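Why predict the complex rather than its parts? Because the way molecules touch one another can change local conformation, and only a joint prediction can capture that. The input here totals 843 residues.
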Amino acid sequence: MLEARIKKTFRGFSLNIELNAGNETMALLGASGAGKTMTLKCLAGIERPDSGRIAVDGQVWFDSESKICLSPQERSTGLLFQNYALFPNMTVLQNLVCGLRRETPRKEREKEARRLLERFCLTGLEHHLPSQLSGGQQQRVALARCLARKPKLLLLDEPFAALDTHLRWQLEQELGDTLDMFAGTTLYVTHDREETLRLCGRVCVVQAGRSQSATPVWEWYHQPATRSAAHLAGFENIFSAKLGNDGRVHLPDVGISMEYPEKEAEAAAFRASSVRLGERQEEFAVSCRIVRSTEQELIVSPLQHPTSLIRALPDNRYSVGDVVWLNVPRTKIIWLKKEEAACLPQR
Amino acid sequence: MDWFPLLNSLRVASIATVITFLLGIWAANGITRLPRALKGVLDCILTLPLVLPPTVVGFFLLKTISPKAALGGFLLDSFGWKLTMTWYSAIFATTIVAFPLMYRTARGAFEQLSPEWEACAATMGLSRRFIFWKIKMPNCRAGLLAGTVLSFARALGEYGATSMVTGYIPGRTATIATTVYQLWREGNDTLAYRWVMIDLAISMIVLIAVNLLEKRGGRQYAGSAN
Amino acid sequence: MKKLVAVMLSLSLVLVGCVAVAETATPQVELTVFAAASMTESLNKIAEMYKTVAPNVTLVFNFDSSGTLQTQIEEGAEADVFISAGKKQMDALDVTASADANPKAQDLILPDTRFDLLTNTVVLIVPEGSTKDITSFEDVATDKVSLIALGNSDVPVGQYAQDVFTSLGLWDQLNTDKKITFGSNVKEVLSQVEAGAVDCGVVYISDAATGTGIKVVASAPAGSHKPVNYPAAVLKSAKNEQAAKDFLEYLKGADCSKVFTDIGFEIPER
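Output of the joint prediction:
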């Protein structure tokens, strides 16, 4: 159970994060440099926010107003970095015992460490140094070490970034099982869409240091709220929208206007897979010229706005230079809000 | 042959190295926690003896520990301790001159450590003392050793500040460096050459040791996920 | 990177050029005088006076121990005049000196310009305010003195000090007791006594006169050392032979003699 408000300015970058999570796995999704790692560091106590409040399971870890700031040792977090941060001068067993030092009495430590080894399928590797382990084994050790203290908050910083793709799949399965069994809040920092879909229940998009409201994963994937969310969800086509006072909305870069009863729209988004080429069929229809046709995709540009590009699925019926109507069913168009509107109000 | 200069040089250099080792590591570890502005200024001051001519260092030292100077006078009057013209006066000079070498090497070694280790260790509940002794130090071993050997070499080779502070008393404060100078001035080239050879031999051994240690440092825990 | 190298090269060329220009810009005569350290104060005063006498001559001094200066001249240092605090150092450069005194038969001075400029007295000094009750050269061998500063054997006053203690039969004992710290020139000895780093030291009376924070307690007993002579000569490599000779003549004059005697030197019979 996590309640966090973090504000921090560093190196010209401004972080403004609001997170509320229960005992679940929540993704912190955003492009590189969006401030996700700094958020984790503030939660772990390694960095100090300029202002805000962090409380886990009701215990206040940081409160700028009451001047409370627990050291990382006093909090209850498990931190997993991209490069695992295993201590190179210690064996696997010693690394695990380190994780148990504080709370477990000396005699129990080794037994508990061996139990962890078994749980994470690391038996036989007790006396290996980290440099002698494979990437996957290192990750398991790092994860085991994280969980040794039974933390209340688990912070994972792009745990698969350092691994080959073919290795990831199996480890993802294992990680998924571990997270399911974990009885606390997990924050999963990533910029990978697939991981988010497979491992997390809710997702919180972070864009330029600001967090947006957390939504269930499927909602984000099918109906993102903002440009950045849509971009991260893989929508290939995103165009600015302007509301007219005639109950219609205009997409100036594409040259289309449609009926639109809502009050708010900053942009429109639709997937390449939603595009239908051929005759004029839908309300959203624009005459386009084929600009590029490859095995992976088809790119067209509206005749009236040749600088804009729209992406569609590959279609070998058409070749470069052909003129064709591009249609998108209304149900497939997602209307996006302004970034700030998606963030929780400032306090 | 009077071997006193060799024994004295080794004695002074060893003691100075031990002091430099402790002070250098303490300073290198402590400085990381200071705010940025203070860190920069302090770093300059601590590195200064490396670029100052040793005679400048000697001058400052004399103005501090001379019997008529503030600190020197006080200690002489209160405790009867004379800080100049003794064999241990050289320890002041050599420590100051060798300190930046240990400090910079230690700082470099500490800064090469992944900051993530310290972060993870802290979240695992490990105290700062544990982190320093069980994680930082073991992983810097080769670098720290190389720094120690370099400091020892520098301490052994100190001349300018030492001669100003210890004078030249054969059998009491003479070091290899001051002896060679005096022998040259007296025209005793034969003996001077002998000492030069001895000093060359020691310096070669020291430098070979440094090279070996640095190579080992590169191989230490090689291939770790870092 | 290449730009940086180019800039640095041009800067150094400019600097070299500046120095060259500066050197050729003055039609003045520059006289380089190598002189014993004990003459620092007196010669500096004389240089001021000489500006009115010969305004086109600039005097450049190199003060150090006579032995160091002798070595520098042997190694080819460019100078016009050499004033040594000891006969030994001048003899080593004088082709007319005996084979013992000049074993390498060096011919680096103009022998007919050589003369004895000054003599000096060897004295024992202590730091001002010293409570050790040191009053004579003999006291040095007692417990009153734990450290004495002397010039090394390359420094004339160091040799004289050795002569004095040898004649008193104390030299070996002082060495066994490790009481001596050897300095490389007389000014070093002076500053060590002034700083209180040693209990006493042996210098010339002319040094004692210019030093602050020291007190003269005894003069060397008569006959305990060879006579102190300050020979002066023009060097063979002098670039300005006539100006050098003129300067040496001036040094013999009454005005200079007064400066020297005020400080404590004596003018020998010539």
